[in-house]
Amino acid sequence: MRRQAAATLLWLLTYLADASAAAMLDLPRAESVPGGIVILNLHREEKPLYAVWRKRRVMLVQRRGRWFAVLGIPLSLPPGRYELIVRYGNRSMRPVPFIIRAKHYRTQHISIANQRMVTPNKRDLQRIYRERNLIITALSRWSDPPEISFDFRLPVKGRYRNSFGFRRIFNGRPRRPHRGMDISAPRGTPVRAPADGLVVMTGDFFFTGKTVFIDHGRGMVSMYAHLDRIMVRARQPVNQGEQIGTVGMTGRATGPHLHWAVSLNRTMVNPALLLRNKGRR
Prior knowledge:
Blueprint: H1 2-23, E1 37-41, E2 50-53, E3 56-63, E4 66-72, E5 80-87, E6 93-100, E7 107-110, H2 122-139, E8 159-161, E9 167-170, E10 173-174, E11 181-184, E12 190-192, E13 197-205, E14 209-217, E15 220-230, E16 237-238, E17 243-247, E18 257-264, E19 267-269
């Protein structure tokens, strides 16, 4: 029993040291909670072929000769100990354990004048289901650029609070937790790409209104919703700071704002974890 406890303590200390080391590199801010990002040092010089968690491919990046796994954690995941599976060229499969801690998110009550945005009718639901498949496809995109940058900047100048993860109640009815960051700004305010990428898809959807999706590589896709105007097209490369649209209130919105979301391994994570300098654009 003592040996097992000592082994667990040693592993935990190593895990915490890895997270601290990752913070000094060009990597997202690690937060091992539901809705957060886990950074795992693989402790091998050999290049991994791929990594898998919950049957989904996970981003691998190299920093200063070391390989790291960068994975998003679902908001619905219970706290506990989990394992990432990494495969190497010799076909060896290596489990890499990590811990997810509990986190409490606030509850937010919102009043919506358009009742269809809370309880859609049959025709609305048919549209929502069609659009959901398109959105899932966009967020599932995988590309493998030579380098991955995590130097993200705020996509719009405005007032924001980090409402990611809030449990939302619309007109007294519980709905899915908020899976992005809302930034309030006047209608027409420019919205800019926070990092380099490729536009995956644009569209006008029931809930998110006019929306743009940008692929940043290796399973990292960002989303910009409720736009008034879309100024890019699918398959268009964009550079950091390039305008992609303007702030609006299309779809389910109570006022002009940008809903900014980021997906890692098809999991929505807190966008604030990608902001090294929150005031920069």
